Amino acid sequence: MKKIMLLLLLILTVSFDSRSDDAFDVGEWFKFRIHYGFVNAGYATLEVKDAVINNRKVFHVVGKGYTTGVSRFFFKVVDIYESYIDKETGNPYQFVRNINEGGYTKNQEGFFNQPLHRVTVKDYKNKTEKTFVVPKNTQDILSAFYYLRNYPTIDKIRPGEFVEIDMFFDDETTKFKLKFMGREDIKTKFGVVSSMIFRPLVQSGRVFKEQESLTVWVSDDENRLPIRIKADLAVGSLKADLDAFKGLKAPFKNKEIMNINENTLSILKEIEQKYDSINLKTDTQLEGLLWSKPTTYWDYIQTDALLNLQVQKTTLPDEMVFILYHQVNELIFKMILWEMNQISSMVTIQVDFFTDRLSRISRYFDMLSTSFTIMENGMDVDQYMKFRNTLTPASGFQSAQYRLIEFCATDLVNLIDNRFIASYNDTISNEEAFEVLYWQAAGKDYQTGKKTYTLEAFEKNTKRYF
């Protein structure tokens, strides 16, 4: 009895996650949590993959059911169901049933010949092979529910009406019926969801107390996603709730989402347009937000990294001030370059934009000029003279960012050393001009052409950027 009950529950767990041009696509996955009373009994999952059968692309559906926790000690279940479904007709080519339910095992594989209305079942446990005659468009246990999910006019079905298909299971074909009960809004972990209610008609006396003792709630949207399953048994009842999902073809809808204001809808539409433009699924990106950590100031600013970038070469306290001052300068240099890059990247520069960015740059330079008093009055001169010797041959002249600011701020001719400006003309290459820039004099003997280590190291590290 328990074996049959768990089997039917697995069937219904994966039942409405079926193949549909409108309802699902490759990559869809969801999980159900199954509980017996207050006991967490197990989980069931369904995943849709791509596969090829007889040189035709098909959907490969994999359904799994398993008990967990204490339930495993009383009744261990490890079930695997698979179905290979034609993407155009919705009919199955092949199914797999490999189950272990409290010691009751089956290992079968079925092969459909739809044109001849035959199915061949290979029983690997009993080493048998049988062929059965089946009606047209007969489904297996998984493909049946894929078909039901995209059943024609399912959205127009009226309470009391039935959906009926032929399903092959356990070496026989049975009429599988679903009775539509109506619609209902139910509370879930994902919010209040509008649902369609169905009751499968099953054989009375084997597991369920009466024919309509099993109820299935399916999302009343394009996904036709099973939301909840409840089964009244001879002793107690089973309940299964949607626990997780991803890869839905259509957006998952709940009442909260449907009632959001126009501003939020506008934002969601812009987000969807953004990800559509780069061929990414919006649902996947939004779902990622569920698992992302809240942003903190220290993570965003990277304060731990920033405050550990100061490495002193001496034990003199004011060396720390010296290091921090120059690091702050480099950060301000980066702010200046950031604004300059915005200006230079504009194809058609607007006056307001240009003056605004120029004002920003001016304020950054004000910060630099007023902060120089730190160098004058913020350090002990004796300490400075001592730790300065340990920094040789490093020099503030080696600030690549400041050199870039100069290149961005003026024409190259204005940076030529006065001793060579007379010989400068448009025929001189940038490489030649670089050798006579004004700051080259800080590390070059123009009579011999020999450069100091400070200049050579600077050029080796940064010239490729210039």
Question: If you had to describe this structure to a student in words, what would you say it looks like?
Answer:
The protein is α+β, with helices and mostly antiparallel strands and 466 residues long. The chain is built from 15 helices and 14 strands. It has helices spanning 2-15, 71-74, 143-149, 255-258, 262-277, 282-291, 297-301, 303-306, 318-344, 351-370, 373-377, 381-389, 400-409, 430-434, 453-462, and strands spanning 29-36, 39-53, 56-67, 77-86, 92-101, 104-113, 118-123, 128-133, 162-169, 172-188, 191-201, 214-219, 226-232, 237-246. A 14-stranded antiparallel sheet has the order 8-7-6-5-4-3-2-1-14-13-12-11-10-9. It is elongated and about 100 Å long. The model is unreliable at 1-20 and 203-210 (pLDDT under 50).
What keywords describe this structure?
disordered N terminus, single chain, alpha+beta, elongated, 14-stranded antiparallel β-sheet, 15 helices, 466 residues
Class from helix and strand fractions: alpha+beta
Strand order of the largest sheet: 8-7-6-5-4-3-2-1-14-13-12-11-10-9
Oligomer: single chain
Number of strands: 14
Number of helix segments?
A: 15
Average pLDDT taken over every residue: 86
Order of helices and strands: HEEEHEEEEEHEEEEEEHHHHHHHHHHHH
How much of the sequence lies in strands comes to: 25-35%
> Which outline best applies?
elongated
The separation of the N and C termini measures 79 Å
Approximate helicity band: 25-40%
Profile the largest sheet.
14 strands, antiparallel
